[in-house]
From TrEMBL:
Positions of transmembrane segments: 7-27
Obligatory cofactor(s): heme c
SUPFAM superfamilies in alphabetical order: Cytochrome c (SSF46626)
Main localization of the protein described in the UniProt heading: membrane
Regions annotated as coiled coil: none
Xref: InterPro entries: Cyt_c-like_dom, Cyt_c-like_dom_sf, Cyt_C_IC, Cytochrome_c-type_DH, Membr-bd_ADH_cyt_c
Organism field: Sphingomonas oligophenolica
Record key words, sorted: Cell membrane, Electron transport, Heme, Iron, Membrane, Metal-binding, Repeat, Respiratory chain, Signal, Transmembrane, Transmembrane helix, Transport
Residue span, Cytochrome c domain: 61-164, 206-315, 341-428
Localization per record: Cell membrane
Matches recorded under PANTHER family: ALCOHOL DEHYDROGENASE CYTOCHROME C SUBUNIT (PTHR35008:SF8), BLL4482 PROTEIN-RELATED (PTHR35008)
Domain of life of the source: Bacteria
Keyword ATP-binding tagged: no
Protein name per UniProt: Cytochrome c
């Protein structure tokens, strides 16, 4: 063969390989493909409809139904700034190449969506195209909301018309080239937005289908819990196997026994989702705490049970970076050789600022929520969420009132936070962490 031919053959091989890699990324499985079976159009499904509000809510007025669905879809979490008016936008989504700001979706005509037609609203929600015809970034989970029925999407719209109009213009989104080219999102959308409504799976139970609708069309669990591919779309080959969301680790929630939630009972899962805590399994903080407060805690027990039914069928994926959580309390004495020598500064801080609520045993002196043992966060050798909880604190509504862990982000330096985080994982977890002050600085910036 001549040299020219060899060069040509090599180029052809590289092109074919590139095409294969691209197809592998672009044409992965859809969110519910793992379930197999055959899907039917909603009108043809013979079971109870998986869409709309649960039966206990069906007799309420349209606005109350819309409110229930708006909470299930958790629009408020992203469309509200810290301490800002609900739905008035202004929450920052920090990316390596700039910041996306969530818009105001209150009925204000100038700065909100009061002037939008229903058709424009449906298009933004499910296709990711705004009233000006501009493409939205997938920070807005339209690839999940695309599964919403017209009726449910319009019920959400009806509720949003009743929230107080806030006159507030969030800062403009500013990304660097080429990411500032919104038109590129049309290609993304073509590849990764399924652009179809929810189709029930005829081979699964009505509860499973309801759970699928709640988790995929509404709660967009995958947005945080499914890792992303090179093109920032969800990689459903590792569905729900865990990912990092806004500087927090959203853990593996597949059926894997050691590294996912396969070892949890149905009751534990239901309690964690509806109350943000299950004894011996930890307490939801950060973005999950918010999802519980604003969304999941408002769902009926039947809807939570349906979601658990669905979660149980997610194929197990093992994530060996997460060890099986340590069981049982740490010793009730202050001595703990491994932790004492690994993080002496951490011990000093823990003794001074933390044992009052957490106890040397980690069993929670304050209340059950403050139990450190068994929590995935405490057993995660990256200590990401442990550091985040120390930085931002956490708070949870209980029957006895608000239970609060104060934020220590202002009180402590990066080195102090790293030291106490490493002390906590070494003393109470399965594997010690070695978070550095530099990593803590990065975590602060990511939230
Ligand atoms: C995970 C975060 C997130 C959630 C949840 C979310 N949004 Fe958004 N939404 C965004 C972001 C970010 C943008 C702006 C995207 C951009 O600038 O390209 C946006 C844009 C929009 C827009 C376009 C507004 C405009 O002025 O251009 C509408 C309408 C909207 N969202 C409605 C909703 C509704 C209704 C829900 C709940 C069903 C919801 N969003 C849930 C993050 C979210
Ligand atoms: C905005 C991001 C986000 C969304 C949306 C979200 N999660 Fe989470 N989830 C997290 C984070 C972060 C954690 C870890 C919380 C912690 O350590 O305190 C978590 C933890 C969990 C856990 C506990 C796992 C463990 O091993 O401790 C379960 C179960 C869970 N989520 C289920 C769900 C389900 C079901 C949905 C959809 C209805 C959902 N999550 C939606 C971010 C999210
Ligand atoms: C005033 C009581 C109080 C103090 C002081 C306190 N905590 Fe907490 N902590 C709590 C409560 C309550 C929770 C559960 C909060 C929630 O998630 O809603 C918690 C949660 C945590 C968690 C997450 C547990 C899980 O389930 O994932 C960690 C880690 C933690 N605290 C570490 C610390 C450290 C380190 C200190 C000292 C620097 C500290 N706490 C000080 C009350 C406290």
């Amino acid at each position: 063969m001549s040299r020219g031919r060899i060069v040509l053959a090599v180029i052809a091989m590289i092109l074919v390989l590139g095409l294969l890699v691209f197809s592998w990324i672009a044409f992965g499985p859809g969110a519910m493909d793992f379930a197999g079976g055959h899907r039917v159009a909603l009108e043809k499904y013979s079971g109870t409809s998986p869409t709309g509000v649960p039966a206990d809510f069906a007799s309420t007025d349209p606005v109350a139904r819309g409110e229930y669905l708006t909470k299930a879809a958790d629009c408020q979490a992203c469309h509200t700034a810290k301490g800002g008016a609900p739905f008035a936008g202004g929450l920052a989504f920090k990316l390596p190449f700039g910041t996306i700001w969530s818009p105001n979706i209150t009925p204000d005509r100038d700065t909100g969506i009061g002037g939008w037609s229903d058709a424009q609203f449906l298009r933004a929600l499910r296709e990711g195209i705004d009233d000006q015809g501009q493409h939205l970034y997938p920070a807005m989970p339209y690839a999940a909301y695309t599964y919403l029925t017209d009726a449910d999407a319009l019920a959400i719209r009806a509720y949003l018309r009743t929230v107080p109009a806030a006159h507030r213009e969030p800062p403009p989104t500013a990304l660097s080239f080429p990411f500032n080219q919104r038109r590129l999102m049309s290609v993304w959308s073509l590849l990764f937005n399924p652009k179809r409504r929810f189709e029930p799976n005829a081979d699964r139970s009505p509860a499973w289908n309801r759970g699928a609708y709640l988790a995929e069309a509404m709660g967009h669990c995958g947005d945080c819990h499914t890792p992303r591919n090179l093109l920032q779309a969800l990689d459903n080959r590792h569905k729900y196997a865990g990912a990092v969301a806004a500087g927090w680790r959203a853990f593996n929630i597949t059926g894997d026994k050691a590294t996912g939630v396969g070892g949890w009972s149905d009751a534990e899962l239901a309690q964690y989702l509806s109350q943000g805590h299950a004894p011996g399994r930890g307490t939801a903080a950060g973005p999950m705490g918010e999802a519980v407060d604003l969304s999941l805690s408002h769902l009926t027990p039947s809807d939570i049970a349906a979601m658990v039914t669905y979660l149980r069928t997610i194929p197990p994926v093992s994530t060996p970076d997460q060890p099986r959580p340590a069981t049982g309390p740490a010793p009730a004495t202050h001595r703990f050789a491994a932790a004492d020598s690994a993080a002496p500064l951490g011990k000093k801080i823990f003794e001074g600022a933390c044992i009052g609520c957490h106890a040397w045993s980690g069993n929670g002196a304050l209340n059950g929520l403050a139990t450190l043992n068994g929590s995935r966060a405490v057993n995660d050798p990256s200590a990401t969420n442990v550091a985040q909880v120390i930085i931002s604190g956490a708070s949870r509504r209980t029957a006895q009132g608000q239970s609060v862990m104060p934020a220590f982000g202002h009180a402590y330096s990066d080195a102090e936070i790293a030291a106490v985080a490493n002390y906590v994982t070494t003393r109470f977890g399965a594997k010690p962490s070695s978070v550095t002050p530099k990593q803590v600085a990065r975590l602060r910036k990511a939230t």
